[in-house]
Specification:
Elements (H helix, E strand, L loop, with lengths): L2 H25 L14 E10 L2 E2 L4 E6 L2 E7 L5 E8 L1 E7 L5 E2 L3 E6 L4 E20 L2 E2 L4 E5 L4 E6 L5 E8 L1 E8 L8 E3 L2 E8 L4 E3 L2 E3 L3 E8 L2 E2 L4 E10 L2 E3 L4 E2 L5 E5 L10 E8 L4 E2 L3 E6 L4 E3 L2 E5 L1
Parallel strand pairs: 1-9, 9-17, 9-18, 19-28, 19-29
Antiparallel strand pairs: 1-2, 1-5, 3-4, 3-6, 6-8, 7-9, 9-10, 9-13, 11-12, 11-14, 14-16, 15-16, 19-20, 19-24, 21-22, 21-23, 21-25, 25-27, 26-29
Length: about 300
């Protein structure tokens, strides 16, 4: 047997394979590759809380999503706050109440992956405006009290049963408060049918604007078996009423102690001086007297009481 030939036949295929691999390795260049950075999957919310333009520190800021609280932080000394690592979507951002200030305390923020969403709360200092409208010392109910600043109308409030009214969360500074009536109201500025008072609202303070007017008043009390009866309608009419036609409106119902009051503080001749028919719309089983020909002189307050009985 030819040993040399046998060795050659065994090693030739292996030599050819090694040679092919060597050639391939030499002819192929491997280009270096940069590592691929993963796309960001979270975002963040940053914000600022101010009061009258100055940073507000120590304010609690709560982050919620779908009605569930996600996180809570306090604003820094610069009034700033932030939430990080947030999944994309819509969140609610709310701040705690700041004493003596008002602002939108709940805002919506949309988080986008890899981005920063800004949410800011700009609060302002507020105060209160309140007072009472009276005619000859009697509280006038249902009188519309309006308020404005130098640039716009701020609101209208009706007076309560005792003539009081109140505006809350009013921004600081000068305000004008007024009512509409043809009756004189000493101490007010009078322009046609407008009676107005200038007030200044301070931070956390109460500005008072009282309208002490003069005019005609019909007041009194309804009692049933000697006890004040609430919720009964008392009508003051120009003559014999037909389905309440010709009666002074809006109709007055007695308060919790049976008192009622009609006043002339309204635009136009709401309660002009003349004789009136005054009576109670009493329910079945109750008897109340009528008061015909009740004289109401100019500038007078007339008292008309009704001692009713229940059978």
């Amino acid at each position: 047997m030819d040993v040399g030939r046998l060795a050659m036949e065994r090693w030739l295929p292996l030599s050819l394979l090694l040679f092919a691999l060597f050639v391939q390795a030499c002819s192929t260049e491997t280009a270096p590759t940069d590592p691929v950075e993963p796309a960001p999957v979270t975002g963040e919310i940053r914000g600022l809380v101010t009061g009258d333009g100055a940073p507000s520190s120590g304010v609690t800021v709560t982050l919620s999503r779908n009605g569930s609280e996600v996180a809570t932080v306090l604003t820094t000394g610069n009034g700033e706050f932030g939430f990080t690592g947030l999944g994309a979507g819509t969140y609610a951002v709310a701040i705690s109440e700041i004493a003596g200030m008002i602002c939108s305390r709940r805002l919506t923020a949309t988080v986008v992956a890899g981005e920063e969403t800004e949410v800011s709360f700009a609060c302002i200092t507020v105060g209160t405006v309140e007072g009472r409208v009276t005619v000859n010392g009697v509280g006038a109910a249902g009188i519309l009290v309006a308020m404005r600043n130098a640039t716009r109308h701020l609101g209208t409030k009706p007076t309560a049963k005792d003539g009081t009214y109140r505006f809350t969360n009013v921004s600081t500074g000068a305000k004008t408060v007024w009512i509409i009536t043809e009756e004189p109201c000493p101490g007010t500025q009078q322009e046609n049918t407008r009676r107005q008072i200038e007030v200044t609202v301070s931070a956390g303070g109460v500005a008072v604007a009282d309208f002490s007017c003069t005019g005609q008043v019909v007041t009194g009390r309804v009692t049933v078996n000697g006890i004040g009866e609430p919720g009964l309608t008392v009508l003051v009419c120009y003559g014999s009423p037909v389905w309440d036609y010709g009666c002074v409106a809006p109709y007055q119902a007695t308060d919790s102690e049976g008192h009622f009051a009609y006043t002339s503080v309204h635009a136009g001749s709401y309660l002009p001086p003349q004789d009136y028919l005054v009576f109670v719309e009493s329910p079945f089983g109750m008897s109340c007297p009528e008061r015909p020909n009740v004289p109401v002189p100019a500038g007078a307050a007339v008292t008309v009481d009704f001692p009713c009985v229940r059978s």
